[in-house]
Backbone:
């Protein structure tokens, strides 16, 4: 579904004085996509969004909306609507006035506005609440009013700046599905910003992973999870165990890594780095907790890891084993609970096995902070 | 265009940006800076009739400042003792009024800032109401009280405490009371604002540690309230040194205030440059004095006006 | 220290403090109702409303009020506009410039009003000359100069009031409006301005009051348009009458009335807001039971008491006639005066006799002592600082001026004291 209006960022740089907030971003967003920028707080996500909505002039490069260069076009002239991190509902206006503010600007009559407000209130499941003040609504209701207000302006692109971050966990999970539904119903492009990888993975068609002003990878959620392009993407999205070392041998799609601690191990080179990783390079290997299984004692080879267990925990659906790992970090292993009996390994050595297709190698790089 | 201006116009739009910038420039440059500079410039010029202004006689001169120190040329005295005495008396009296106000207002500000309850609001209204009444009328009210047949004299002679009426006005008591009266609010509010934000627990903690009440004030409350105190003191000092109405109405016939000299130069002697020079001297001295005091008590300029 | 002792001393202190603060105003207000031609409360002569009548027939006062209103309006508009612009600038100015900028816009509060008046006068006079305009141009007009001079520092007060509220403004609101298609002007008008409205109202009231009562600056700039304060100052400096007390009473009453009204309104808003908060929790039907205007609202009660008192006073004023009482007092005074004149004549006679006797004895100089004359049209009342005590009254006692109107009788003790 590429009916909607797409957005392109071309060689986008944004500087605040000497500080580079966004460095050479190149992003193509398909029309009608639910596209997420995912990155830790302070990495420049809001900055990108402000450049798209027109509150910031890029220092270099262009923002294109529907193929049209937006240079010199103010935020009130762009076909975008932004949902602010703190929602920015107008506190002195009633809910219905808030929702139809964009019509008031264009001089629509009060009757028209009321009618449209009622439609939108029905859509966001708040019928009959139009005469309240925003301060009289709950957090989730306010959230929905902000969405309705933005949609009322009939934007081609809806920009959402961590809209769920202020909500509690339950509501957040509920709103995820609701947002996705709304997007599918209205069919316009959503650009969504979050530092929560769960939100990004569940809702998005495509995700851009950001680190300190740089976009590391743009792909759909599955690809980012299974085939990260950088050490940062691998460590930021989902839980991951890292093994540092050097590429000893590169064999096509696979590489043999001489790890600092766990001997020589084989893993798949992530797609983005094939042909780039050379023998002797510093490399990092990532294996997810659920990709391990406990091997019979004494097993060894290039896909076995032996380590001492520090502690274990029972989480219901999974059983977690933590062993001594690389650089002071623990290795986490999650064994699905099928009702089998577990033996307590604490203090003992344990041998773990993995499928080499589930271990990825990327060039050594910065890891996401815990 | 500097990046600051560019961002400013981006944020406010061209029309709104120009309006804001225009108003701010008109205010800061047209109303604040240029008039002061103009007055300064004027104070260095001789007093000429309008047709000669800008003519050959219109040259810079120090004579207006010399006049304050040495008096009229060929005068009988070496120094202009009359004006100089008025000048120093004004400054000293303004300092006294400030100290008096501080002592009077600190307890009230503390009490209002630390108590809760609806009577505080009524107190606040009672504080503000006098401030809304015309300055002249407030001075007038004090004159009714301090006059020779005023309330106080009637009361005291009636009670037989003294037998002839006491001349409050000639003794400047009326003047000082009037000046103190006029600026009470300006002393209370800054102190109140700061003390209100002082956490009660700090005082409780100090009390728990067995500190006597005066030490609590000296070590906890006053240091905390310093920005408010300096703000209030600065305002009261500047305003009482620059007061005109109260001295005119409550001052005795012989005790002039420096502003009255300025007023006379302008309105009675029609010597504007001389008046401007006196005004410059008053302004500069007051500013230097305040700055020196702020240095002495280690206060920042940014605290003033909060 | 004993805590009940402390509490008592606090209350005593408060009582003294508020007596100092409010006492003069109360006493001044009371003097407006005493028929004595000098404003005072003792001795109380007659309850009268004549000073109000006199006040309302005083053309200069009325004209002063008109000028004050015109200038007040101008100052409110200019200083609120500049104060708002100044506050907006303060929140966005380049950080390196902020401290300097703040110092500049706060300075007028600290600059003595006299200096502001002079600098305004001097500066615009120069501009006027540079433009080659005459003495009757707009730039040398008293209203223009006064508005400009007053706004210089009143704008600083407005700025402080406005910036306090502006700091609580979320600029994202303006951005949201822009994002939804509003122009900058629309966003300002529909979002920022409504948010700022309470602060703008306070700033406007403050500006008006400050303008209305300003003396120091205005005294240099008013030109042909003396404001009420200027007129009052002239009157107070050159002789005081209870008509001024009458004006003061009106101003005090209005101030108290509006202060209480405002407080009652605020209090009510608070109560309503509290009720609304509770209601949203309890019922969804929106059936909010408004609390009575008076419930828990002391200010409202005071307001009503005050209004009733005012109505009573005004009502009394329309029917009450103090003529008889005044006539009595006059008669008494006349008698008293005559008695004293007689006494003085007698004294004088005796003195003369004595002197003559002495002169005759000495056979010396024949000149009589020069009579000190008082050539002020109003008699002794305005003699500068003079005539303290009653003993100097002698020379005038020989020819008592006819008690004309308010300035009354020389024997009125106040005029003897020459309270100047
Ligand atoms: N107006 C600004 N001036 C200077 N630095 C800024 C400005 N706005 C953002 N930054 C900086 O840019 C970086 C990215 O900010 P932002 O885009 O808000 O991060 P986030 O990804 O959390 O939304 C941060 O380090 C922030 O400090
Ligand atoms: Mg952000």
Residues:
């Amino acid at each position: 579904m590429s009916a909607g209006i797409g957005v392109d960022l071309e060689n986008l740089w944004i500087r605040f004085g000497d500080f580079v907030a966004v460095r050479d971003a190149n992003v193509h967003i398909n029309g009608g996509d639910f596209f997420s920028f995912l990155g830790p707080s302070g990495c420049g996500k809001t900055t990108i969004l402000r450049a798209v909505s027109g509150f910031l002039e890029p220092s270099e490069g262009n923002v294109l909306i529907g193929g049209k260069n937006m240079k010199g076009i103010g935020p009130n002239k762009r076909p975008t609507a932004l949902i602010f991190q703190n929602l920015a509902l107008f506190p002195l206006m009633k809910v219905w006035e808030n929702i139809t503010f964009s019509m008031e600007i264009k001089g629509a009559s009060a009757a028209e506005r009321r009618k449209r407000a009622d439609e939108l209130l029905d859509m966001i499941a708040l019928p009959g609440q139009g005469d309240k003040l925003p301060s009289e609504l709950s957090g989730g209701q306010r959230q929905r009013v902000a969405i309705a207000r933005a949609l009322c302006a009939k934007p081609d692109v809806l920009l959402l700046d961590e809209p769920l971050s202020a909500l509690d966990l339950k509501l957040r999970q509920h709103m995820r599905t609701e947002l996705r539904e709304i997007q599918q119903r209205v069919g316009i492009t959503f650009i969504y910003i979050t530092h929560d990888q769960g939100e990004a993975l569940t809702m998005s068609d495509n995700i851009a992973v950001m680190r300190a002003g740089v976009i590391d990878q743009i792909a759909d959620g599955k690809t980012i999870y299974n085939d990260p392009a950088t050490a940062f993407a691998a460590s930021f999205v989902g839980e991951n165990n890292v093994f540092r070392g050097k590429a000893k041998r590169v064999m096509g799609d696979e590489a043999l890594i001489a790890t600092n601690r766990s001997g020589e191990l084989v893993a798949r080179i992530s797609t983005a780095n094939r042909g780039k990783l050379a023998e002797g390079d510093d490399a990092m290997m990532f294996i997810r907790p659920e990709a391990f299984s406990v091997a019979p004692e004494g097993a060894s080879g290039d896909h076995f890891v032996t380590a001492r267990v520090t502690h274990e925990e029972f989480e219901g659906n999974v059983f977690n084993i933590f062993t001594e790992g690389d650089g002071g970090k623990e290795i986490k292993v999650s064994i699905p609970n099928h009702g089998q009996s577990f033996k307590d390994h604490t203090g003992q050595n344990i041998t773990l096995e993995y499928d080499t297709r589930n271990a990825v190698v990327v060039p050594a790089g910065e890891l996401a902070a815990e | 265009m500097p990046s600051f201006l560019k961002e400013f116009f981006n944020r406010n739009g061209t029309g709104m940006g120009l309006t804001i910038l225009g108003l701010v420039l008109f205010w800061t440059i047209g109303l604040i800076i240029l008039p002061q500079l103009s007055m300064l410039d004027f104070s260095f010029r001789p007093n000429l009739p309008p047709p000669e202004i800008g003519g050959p006689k219109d040259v810079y001169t120090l004579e207006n400042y010399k006049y304050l120190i040495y008096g009229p040329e060929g005068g009988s005295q070496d120094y202009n003792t009359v004006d100089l005495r008025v000048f120093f008396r004004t400054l000293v009296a303004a300092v006294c009024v400030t100290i008096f106000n501080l002592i009077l207002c600190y307890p009230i500000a503390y009490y209002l800032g630390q108590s809760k309850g609806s009577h505080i609001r009524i107190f606040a209204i009672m504080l503000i109401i006098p401030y809304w009444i015309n300055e002249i009328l407030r001075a007038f009210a004090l004159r009714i009280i301090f006059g020779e047949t005023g309330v106080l004299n009637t009361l005291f002679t009636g009670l037989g405490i003294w037998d002839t009426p006491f001349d409050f006005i000639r003794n400047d008591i009326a003047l000082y009371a009037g000046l103190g009266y006029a600026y009470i609010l300006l002393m209370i509010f800054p102190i109140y604002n700061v003390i209100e934000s002082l956490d009660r627990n700090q005082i409780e903690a100090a009390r728990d540690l067995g500190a006597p009440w005066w030490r609590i004030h000296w070590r906890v409350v006053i240091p905390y309230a310093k920005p408010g105190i300096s703000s209030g003191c600065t305002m009261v000092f500047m305003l009482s040194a620059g007061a005109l109405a109260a001295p005119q109405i409550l001052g005795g016939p012989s005790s002039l205030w420096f502003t009255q000299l300025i007023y006379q130069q302008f309105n009675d002697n029609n010597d504007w440059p001389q008046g401007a020079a006196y005004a410059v001297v008053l302004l500069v001295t007051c500013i230097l004095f305040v700055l020196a005091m702020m240095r002495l008590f280690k206060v920042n300029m940014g605290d003033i006006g909060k | 220290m004993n805590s009940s002792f402390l509490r008592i001393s606090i209350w005593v202190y408060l009582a003294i403090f508020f007596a100092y603060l409010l006492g003069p105003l109360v006493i001044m207000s009371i003097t407006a109702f005493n028929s004595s031609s000098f404003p005072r409360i003792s001795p109380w002569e007659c309850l009268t409303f004549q000073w109000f009548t006199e006040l309302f027939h005083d053309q200069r006062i009325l004209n002063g009020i008109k000028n004050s209103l015109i200038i007040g309006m101008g100052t409110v508009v200019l200083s609120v506009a500049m104060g708002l612009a100044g506050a907006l600038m303060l929140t966005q100015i380049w950080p390196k410039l902020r401290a300097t900028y703040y110092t500049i816009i706060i300075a007028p509060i600290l600059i003595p009003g006299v200096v502001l008046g002079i600098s305004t006068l001097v500066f615009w006079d120069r501009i006027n000359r540079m433009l080659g305009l005459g003495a009757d141009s707009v730039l040398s007009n008293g209203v223009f100069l006064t508005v400009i001079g007053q706004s210089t520092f009143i704008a600083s007060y407005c700025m402080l009031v406005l910036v306090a509220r502006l700091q609580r403004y979320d600029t994202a609101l303006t951005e949201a409006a822009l994002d939804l298609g509003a122009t900058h002007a629309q966003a300002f008008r529909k979002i920022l301005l409504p948010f700022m409205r309470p602060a703008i109202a306070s700033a406007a009231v403050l500006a008006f009051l400050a303008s209305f009562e300003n003396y120091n600056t205005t005294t240099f700039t008013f030109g042909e348009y003396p404001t009420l304060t200027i007129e009052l100052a002239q009157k107070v400096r050159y002789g005081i009458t209870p008509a001024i007390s009458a004006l003061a009473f009106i101003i005090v009453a209005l101030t108290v009335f509006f202060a209480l009204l405002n407080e009652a309104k605020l209090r009510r808003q608070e109560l309503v807001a509290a009720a609304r908060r509770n209601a949203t929790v309890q019922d969804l039907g929106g059936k909010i039971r408004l609390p009575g205007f008076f419930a828990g609202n002391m200010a409202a009660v005071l307001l009503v008491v005050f209004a009733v008192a005012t109505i009573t006073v005004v009502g009394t004023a329309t029917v009450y006639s103090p003529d008889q009482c005044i006539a009595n007092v006059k008669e008494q005074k006349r008698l008293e005066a005559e008695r004293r004149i007689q006494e003085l004549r007698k004294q004088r006679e005796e003195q003369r006799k004595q002197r003559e006797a002495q002169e005759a004895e000495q056979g010396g100089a024949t000149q009589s002592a020069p009579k000190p004359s008082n050539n002020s049209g109003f008699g002794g009342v305005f003699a500068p600082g003079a005539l303290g005590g009653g003993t100097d009254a002698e020379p005038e006692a020989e020819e008592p001026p006819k008690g004309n109107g308010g300035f009354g009788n020389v024997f009125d003790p106040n005029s003897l004291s020459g309270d100047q």
Summary: Residues 81-114 of chain B form the longest helix (34 residues). The radius of gyration of chain B is 24 Å. The pocket of adenosine-5'-diphosphate (ligand 1) is lined by residues A 16, 19, 21, 39, 41-47 (CB under 6 Å).
